[in-house]
Protein 1
Amino acid sequence: MRTVVEVRAGRGSPMRKGRGRLDRPTIVAAAIAVARTEGLSAVTMRRIADELGCGPMSLYRHVADRDALVLEMLDVVAAGIEVPPPVTEPRAELVAVLTAVHAALAVEHWAVLPLVIERLASPRILPLVERVFVALARAGVAGRDVVAVNQLLWQFVYGELLWTHHDRPATFARQMVHNASSEQYPALAAAVRDLPDVVTDHFDQNLRRLLDGVLPGSVTASRDA
C-alpha cells in the first residue's frame, strides 16, 4: 500500500490565494502542494508567497529561508511514513524499514532531490536510521562495514526512486538505448527489445538481491527459507 502524506493544502492542488490565516503549517502545506504539481524547483519563497496571496517578506516571519522551508516539508514527509513495528530478524527488519521509506518517497517523489542533491534531511528519520544500524549489527555486519553498507542501502533506495519515478519514456538516453544497433550491441538490444515504455518498479526484488550480497550468510539463508 502506498503511503500518502496529508497536508492542509490538499493532495496535488496548490492553495488558493488569500486562503486562511498565514502561519507556518499553511506555508509548508502550500509549498508541498506546489512541489507535487510543479516539482521542487518551483518552490521558491516568491512562488509560495504568490500562491498564498502575500508578499515574500511575510513568509520570512515564519520560515527563515528556502532551506528551512524545505526542511519543514521533509518533516511532513517523514512524519507520514507508515513506520512498521520492529522485528528481531535483521533481514526482515531492513526490508520493512526501507520499504516503508520507499513507499512514502514514491508518493512524495519531489523529496528525493533535496535528500540527494541538497543533502537535507529531517531529524524525524533518525529513529529509522537507528533501526537500520541495529539490524545490520545484529546481522553480523561489523566495523567500518556497517557505515559502508548503510550508505549502500540508502543509495539504492534514493537511486531507485530517481530512476523509476523521475524517468520519462521519451528521454534521449532511453531512445539512444532502444535505437542501439543490434549488430554492434547484441546483448543490449536483446535486453531492451521487449521493455515497456514505462519504467518498471523492481524495488522489492532488487532490495532482496542487494541484501543477499551484503548480509553475511544471507544468500544461504534466503535459499533455505
Protein 2
Amino acid sequence: MCSYCGCDSITVIGRFMAEHVEIVNACGQLRRAVTDGGDVPARARDLAHLLGPHTQSEEVGLFSVMKRRDEFTEHVNGLCGEHRSLDELLAAIAAGDHSLMDTFEVALRDHIDKEDNGLFPAAALGLDGDEWTEIDGKTHEHDHATGVPHHH
C-alpha cells in the first residue's frame, strides 16, 4: 500500500487500499491451496467474495466519475477490462485450471499496483470536492444496495 502522497487519507481510497490488502491476503490463501492440494474452490470463492464487490464499488463510484475526464478515460477503461480478466482467471482456477495461478497472481498484483500507485494518487490530485462528494455518495449507495459492508 502506498502512503507517500496521502491519498489513502481520502476515505474511499483508504478503504479501497485496505481492501487490496485483504484481497492480496486471500490470493495468498488461494496460492497455498493450489500448491498444497487444499480446497481451491473454497479459497477461490473467498477471494471472489472480496474481489467482486470491491471492483463493483470502484467502478460505480470512483471510476464512473474519473471516466468523465478525458485524461483518465482510457486508463480507467483499461482497469475495468482488467477487472473482467481477473474474474475470468479466478473462475477458471476455481473450475480446476490451477496452471493459471501464476498468471492470475501476477495480473492481480500488477492491477493493484496500477491503482494504488497510479490511479488513486492521480484521483487525489485531479478530482475536486464536488466529485469526491459524488463518489462517496455513489459508493455508499452501491454498498447499501448490495449489502456490502464497509471496511474501516
Protein 3
Amino acid sequence: MLPTLIASRLTLRPLRDEDSAALHPVFADPAVMQWWSHGPHQSPEKTREVVALNALQEPGYACWAITLDGGAAHGWVTLKDRRPGVSEIGYLIGRSLWGQGYGREAVTAVLDHGFACPGQRRVYADVDPENAPSIRLLERLGFVLEGHLREEWETHIGVRDTILYGLLAREWLGRAAQAG
C-alpha cells in the first residue's frame, strides 16, 4: 500500500480514479503540457484514462496526487523502478501552484520516501533541455546533469532531445544530514 506523504504545506496521497476531474484542467493546459511526452488533453475522457492507468499502483510504480490538504489533486509525482536500486522520478503540477516552491516540496517528499527504501541507490529524471523550470528544480535538489541524448523523443512538439539528471542516495542522505 502506497503511504501518504506529509510535507510542510502539502499532502501527497495515492492517486485515485476520481482525481481525473480535478486534474483535467492541468492536463488540458498547453503551458503545463509543453514539455510533456504528449500534448494537452482534449477531453475529460482522455484524462480519465491516464489517471486510471496511473492510479493502478502496480508493483514498481507509485503515483502520488499533489494536494494542499489531502483533497483536490493539483498535480502528481511518480516514482518508477527501472532496475534494482534505480528509479525514475516524474512530476507535473498545475500552473496555479507554479513559482511558490510546491514542486520542490512535493519532489523532496517523494525523494525522502524513495531513498528510505532499502537498496535504493539512485533516482534519475528525463527532462527536455528547454524545460528551464524543471532543470532549476532538479539542480536545487542536488541532481547532477549526466547525459544528453539527441533526438530521443518524438512528441507533440516534434522530435526532441532529452537530458538526464541523476541523484545518488548517498548525496541525498548526506545533504539531509548536513541540514540537520
Protein 4
Amino acid sequence: MRGTPRAAPGGYAALVQPSDDPRTRRAPAAVTLRDVADRAGVSLATASRVLNGSDRVVRPDLAARVGQAAAELRYVSNGPAQALARARTNVVGLVVHEVDDPYFASIAAGAMRVATEHGLLTMLASTFRDPGREVEYVQRFQAQRVRAVLLAGSGRLAGAAELDRALGEFGDGGGRVALVSERGLPFDTVLPANARGAAQVARLLHDLGHRDVGVVTGPADLRTVADRLGGFLDAWASLGRDRDAVAVAEGDFSRAGGHAATLTLFERHPHLTAVFALNDLMAVGALSALQSDLGRRVPEDVSVVGFDDLWLAADLQPALTTVRLPLEQMGARAMELVLTEAGDAPRRVPVGAELILRASTGPARAA
C-alpha cells in the first residue's frame, strides 16, 4: 500500500511515502544513500545500518532521523541491485600515484602483506599523478565488485568532489574505503605526521646555525606539500625567523624534479647553506645538483635534508638526513581499516614521524 512503511532488514522501518514538501520532489533514482545520510546528519555507515540492515543496533533517535530523511528525499532501495552489488569478490583495489616510487612501493608492500594474510588478492593501479585516473579506477573497481579500495597518495587541495562522490557510491554498494595521507575526504584515513616532521627539520637546521635556507617542494596543489611546507615555515617563524625569507622552488616529487629545482634555488640564492627537500627522491636530485653541477660540498658547504627515509637514504654519499615515516606500517594499517567494521564516523589513524640525523647535515659554514 502506498504510504506504508517498509521494514528494512535491520528491523527499522524505511519510510518511503512521498513528501508534500515541493523542495523534496526528486526522482528516486537520483537519490543515493549518501544523500540520505547527509540529510539526516549521520555517517554513511549509520544510514546503511538503518536502511539496509546490520547486526549493530542504531540509537532510536538516529534511526528516526534516517527514516525521516529517507521519506523526505523519497529514497527507495533496490533490494536485488543491492544484493548484486554486495556480492563482493576477495579482491582489494590499491591505487597509488607511481608504482615505481619507493614511497608508494613501501606502502603497497605493507597493504599487500595484510591482504595476503587474510586470503585477499590485491589489484594495484597507478595514476601516474593524473587525479582523473583516481575516479576512473574507483569506478572500474566498483564494476568489478572488489571488496575494498585503498587510495595511497597525497590528495589535492581542491577539486576532490568527483572523487568523493565516486568513493561514496562505492561505499553505498557495500564496498569499503580507506585512504593514506588524505584528511580532506570523509573516509577512514591513515595520517602521517607531515607537518610535525617538517617542523623537526626547521628546528634542527636552526640549531645548527643555518639562516639562509631553501626548500625544494613538490606540486603546490598536493596536500602533502602544503602540510610539509607549512609545518616547516610555521616552525621557522616560531623560532623568530622570517618565513618569507625562506627560498622555495617547486619540483615534481621526482629525482629529476629535485635536481632542477635545486639548480633554480642556487641560481636565485647562491648563498644558501641548507636545502630541505620535501621527499627523499628530490633530495637525491638535490645532492646530485650540488655536488656534480655546482661543485658544493655536502655538508661542509650546504646541508641537505629529505623526508620519508626511503631504503636508499642511508646508502647515499653522504648518507641522507631525513624524516622517517613507517611506510609499510601505514599501508598495513590502511588495509586493516577496511577489514574491520566501519564506525559511526570516519576513523583517523595518526602515524608519527622521526628525524634521522645522518652525514648530509652539519653546522652552517662560517660567513
